[in-house]
Automatic annotation (TrEMBL):
Protein EC: 3.5.1.28
Protein name in the entry: N-acetylmuramoyl-L-alanine amidase
Family label: Belongs to the N-acetylmuramoyl-L-alanine amidase 2 family.
Top-tier EC class: hydrolase
Domain N-acetylmuramoyl-L-alanine amidase: 134-273
Pfam families: Amidase_2, PG_binding_1
Organism from which the protein derives: Pyxidicoccus parkwayensis
Origin organism lineage: Bacteria, Pseudomonadati, Myxococcota, Myxococcia, Myxococcales
Reaction catalysis annotation: Hydrolyzes the link between N-acetylmuramoyl residues and L-amino acid residues in certain cell-wall glycopeptides
Amino acid sequence: MTVRLPPASATRTAPATLTRSAAANTAVTAPPAGLRKGDEGPKVKQLQDALVKLGYMTKAQVSTGYGTFGPKTEAAVKKFQGDKKLPTTGYYGDLTHAALKKALSSGGKPPVDGPTKPPPSTGGKFTKPPVVSAPSPNYNERGGKDIDTIVLHHTGSNNGAGDLAWMRNPKSEVSAHYMIDRDGKIYQLVNDQKRAWHAGKGELHGVPSDINGRSIGIEIVNLGDGKTPFTDAQYKSLTQLTGYLKQTYDVPMKNIVGHADVAVPKGRKNDPAPNFDWNRLKKGIS
């Protein structure tokens, strides 16, 4: 696999240490981003207070799990994300933080006493395919950038286990959001909302850009010699995954590209190999 180094300034943000809340009667404000299901502590309480103020949780719901990011808090976050036209991940990241802060600053709406409505079902043609969680430490924050690009790569080998281990090794300083093995199994290494290190220096449609900051990276296990076929199982999984990501983040078709299309200088990369069937993929997701 080709080593793709992140910018020198890219560093992983360490999770904040949870401490006891010092004040009970303070103005309701949005907590810092970076909360997810399973977290506990005062920042979760702050998030719950904000969701109550905006009407996405009830006081009764909060009282049974105050300070714990459980299923009810996750459902409320998803409902808020859906109303604000954000990806309904349930993860309280940078985009959700910004939207919550804006909603609170505008006054929000009063708390409700009855049960909240369930999150709306996700419409559209594609649902997220099954993925195997294989977290990589090689990521950092997007810096508030929206996802509008999907970049396809080949790994440079036919050894999926080895490729996966390399992208999970902190010494490699490379990663992708997803890897599709030869049998079609999909591994997720980095959360969509984080900035994986897969593209290096690049441009989009001729304009220099932080490709990693705006894109989702998908590695396909393939030698990349132009002779090794991409398997039917890989095309099937890639079509479902790319279709889902395109739909979820409203990615234009022109921004579904190969590493060869964005890497600079031109010719530095040839991903995803000359024998990759772009027509098959685009026909499947259009």
